[in-house]
Specification:
The chain is of the alpha/beta class. It is 23% helix and 33% strand. The strands form 2 sheets. The chain has an 8-stranded mixed beta sheet with strand order 8-9-11-10-12-13-14-15, with helices on both faces. It has a 7-stranded antiparallel beta sheet with strand order 1-2-3-4-5-6-7.
């Protein structure tokens, strides 16, 4: 049950223009390997696109050159082994014209292929050379080099793929550090300097959290607006300084950490970390559609005890009580948002506590149907903007669609107080798009339009 609702970590998209993508490109050719070997093929491709990977828009321009060869598998069968020499260079430029370049020169090849019967094979695949070099103004910011060895099972007829692990040799600093963190001094801002870890036990809060204080903190007579962020299952931890680092892998705390949070955005941002004490609710959601929705329903039915996998309404309520007294914030401009498990916690909090503290809420990829079933139109006391990926296979998109549709029919609820955004083509995701604004939604201005009184 635990693994079923882990959201996609930003670390899996760590190198948007580097080694991870190159490995995927190389592996993509394996599913369509022909039965006979082919001679070397050299191709060069130029490309351009816009990326919000670091939380702000950047224009990417690059060129990729590949010399691709195939040979017959010496073990026989309908499998061929591939060998590719490649190089690429691409430049990422922000709105102010500042840029960095990512380049690579390496080779990749199948080392071993073992037939598992039919069209399935177990493959060991190696990439060597310099899979990523990051430079700016002629200065090297990071250089990865050495060998990467991937172990996987693939079916060349169906395209099925199972990753079995990877090993690497040589220095790979880009594997341990978010690319956006590396380039923040070049294309980002100084938002990370305003974010501080507050481990469990060092404050009066019952949760460990990251604190962001905007440069304008303390200037407003009424206090700053407060935004409390609840984490996804994959960012659960023990609240320690080391555990809190998991919060920096995705969403708002990541964008702050990599210099992608506008300094003129006025919110005090407190990003909390949920702890399962001890982990594990009874129930099995491993073989059901939308296992995350199943887990969340179990937590709801159990009354959200401490061992719940998602943020509970009780701990969020206690944290909000702490935050409005510990910080110079406006108690009438308190907002909550969360992703996946955290979004479910937001829905459950609104069901139990309504507008006692909160002026508006943005749950992303969460399950809101239990909250609606419990509270019905009472949920309309707080404006809600629910966001979900259209193809989410972990938490049912109906978890956002159904309660917002129902709320829209409640007396006196305008379309702006019960909003819904379904992002086409996305699975269990949507938080990076919503929090960065790359999908065109400005959730921050929307929240600031509302006060509790």
């Amino acid at each position: 049950m635990r693994a079923s609702i882990r959201p996609t970590s930003s670390r899996t998209r760590l190198l948007a223009a580097g080694t991870t993508v190159l490995a995927v490109l190389a592996l993509a050719g394996l599913a369509s390997s022909p039965a006979v070997a082919a001679g070397p093929q050299t191709t060069t491709e130029e490309y351009a696109y816009e990326s919000w990977f670091c939380g702000y828009p950047m224009q990417v321009h690059g060129q990729f050159t590949s010399r691709f060869r195939e040979r017959q598998d010496p073990h026989g069968g309908d499998r061929t082994l591939v060998h590719e020499n490649f190089q690429f260079a691409e430049t990422w430029t922000n709105a102010a014209g500042r840029s960095f370049t990512v380049s690579a020169k390496a080779s990749s090849k199948d080392l071993k292929s073992v037939s598992l019967g039919g069209s399935a094979y177990e493959v060991i695949f190696q990439q060597s050379g310099q899979p990523q070099v990051v430079t700016a103004d002629g200065v090297v910011l990071a250089r990865d080099r050495g060998n990467l060895r991937f172990h996987f099972i693939t079916d060349i007829q169906t395209g099925a793929f199972e990753f079995l692990g990877a090993t690497l040799n040589g220095p790979h600093p880009g594997f341990e550090t978010d690319l956006c963190k590396i380039v923040a001094p070049i294309t980002g801002n100084t938002s990370a300097e305003h974010q501080t870890a507050r481990p469990l036990g060092t404050t009066g809060a019952g949760m460990g959290y990251y604190e962001y204080l905007p440069p304008s903190y303390g200037e407003a007579a009424s206090g700053s607006p407060l935004l409390v962020v609840t984490n996804g299952y994959g960012e659960n931890g023990d609240g320690s300084a080391a555990g809190l680092d998991l919060l920096l892998f995705t969403g708002i705390p990541r964008f702050i950490d990599v210099g992608g949070w506008p300094l003129d955005r006025p919110f005090v941002v407190l990003s909390t970390q949920h702890i399962e004490q001890p982990p594990g609710l009874p129930g099995d959601c491993s073989d059901v559609p939308w296992p995350g929705s199943c887990v969340m329903q179990i937590q709801h039915d159990a009354g959200s005890p401490p061992e719940s996998p998602c943020t509970t309404p009780g701990e969020l309520d206690a944290f909000l009580d702490y935050a409005v007294t510990a910080y110079d914030v406006d108690p009438d401009r308190v907002y909550v948002t969360g992703l996946s498990c955290g979004a479910f916690g937001v829905w459950e909090y609104l069901s139990q506590h309504g507008d006692e503290r909160v002026a508006a809420a943005v749950p992303i990829a969460g399950e809101g149907r239990p909250a609606w079933a419990t509270s019905g139109c009472a949920l309309s006391a707080v404006p809600i903007w629910a966001i979900h990926g259209e193809l989410d296979d972990v938490v049912n998109p109906a978890g956002s669609i159904d309660p917002i549709t129902a709320l829209s029919g409640c007396p006196g609820v305008s379309s702006d107080r019960a909003k819904l955004s379904i992002y086409p083509g996305l699975m269990h995701d949507g938080w990076d798009q919503a929090y960065s604004g790359s999908a065109g939604d400005d959730i921050y201005s929307w929240m600031l339009d509302y006060t509790r009184n």
